[in-house]
Write a structure and sequence with these properties.
The protein is α/β, with parallel strands linked by helices. The protein contains 10 helices and 8 strands. The N terminus is likely disordered.
Length: about 290
């Protein structure tokens, strides 16, 4: 039997969903419910919320890990991705908790990873940039332009939180950002390690709340991070094939498994006569750290 036949088993084994949240009680429940048909294991990292985010996520079927205090989006990423890796997942799909990302776009990210072998796939919203809030759009354009200049390649949407991440590759990178600069740091770290990065068009959904970007404080923090990244600019040379085993490189991406998972997500059907797989789901408990 190939991985396409065992689609629901493959997707259960290789890919988790990680949703960092801070005071997203209104949107996290519907997001988890919309995501469950695509990924059977979903972790919500409640980053010190003062509302019912944890309860709403748990009621919708997510496993919840809660920070006792707000540590920032980067710290929430670290917590969620580390948990997924420790549980044996190969990949994690990350989505923001405010409902601005559509789970229906996930198959396109999986398809891109399966076809290209890239260990980082980013949802690109810039084809519908006018639908984004003005402040978020302006900040994204400016940061993406600066990072594109440093990387010597076009990076259309560097601030998107909708990503498909190969966890072993992620874990091998020196990452330390704890707040909104985490998206920039992760992207540039993958490129600096000569790992492929791809962008896939995704829908733009208006967030239910006002952006939490703080123009002055977050810009100052981002500029401090910007000064720390290595110079000169990143090399534009092409990345080596993900299948090549190089000394010191992370374990290569298993494209066959991803293709099987992607095809299953697109079809949602199985031929008659194939064995059925029981997907065991971790209990939806709130763990405090």
């Amino acid at each position: 039997m190939d991985f396409v036949d065992a689609g629901d088993y493959v997707i259960a084994v290789i890919c988790a969903a990680v949703i960092p949240c801070f005071n997203e009680a209104e949107t996290v429940g519907p997001l988890v419910l919309a995501l469950r048909p695509y990924l059977p294991w979903i972790m919500v990292v409640d980053d010190g919320s003062t509302d019912d985010t944890a309860m709403k996520a748990k009621d919708a079927g997510a496993t919840v890990v809660r920070h006792e205090r707000n540590r920032g989006k980067g710290a929430a990423f670290q917590t969620g991705l580390s948990h997924a890796l420790n549980l044996g997942f190969d990949w994690a799909a990350t989505l923001d908790g405010d409902g601005q990302h559509s789970p229906a776009d996930l198959p396109a990210l999986l398809q891109c990873a399966g076809e290209t072998g890239a260990p980082l796939i980013i949802g690109n919203r810039m084809h519908q940039a006018e639908a984004m809030p003005w402040l978020r759009r302006c900040a994204n354009h400016w940061m993406s332009r600066k990072l594109s200049q440093r990387a010597r390649r076009h990076l259309p949407d560097t601030q998107s939180g909708f990503r498909l991440i190969h966890l072993q590759t992620w874990a091998s990178l020196p990452l330390s950002a704890r707040r909104f600069e985490v998206e920039s740091e992760m992207l540039m770290a993958f490129l600096a390690a000569n790992r492929s990065v791809e962008f896939v068009p995704v829908q733009v959904i208006a967030a239910a709340r006002k952006s939490r970007i703080r123009p002055f404080a977050d810009t100052v923090r981002w500029l401090k991070w910007w000064r720390k990244i290595a110079k000169p600019a990143l090399s534009p040379r092409p990345s080596p094939p993900m299948g090549a085993r190089e000394r010191g490189c992370p374990r290569p991406v298993n494209n066959a498994r991803l293709v099987g998972a992607r095809l299953f997500l697109q079809s949602r059907e199985k031929p008659d006569g194939l064995p059925k797989f029981e997907i065991s789901r971790p209990p939806a408990v709130v763990q405090k750290i």
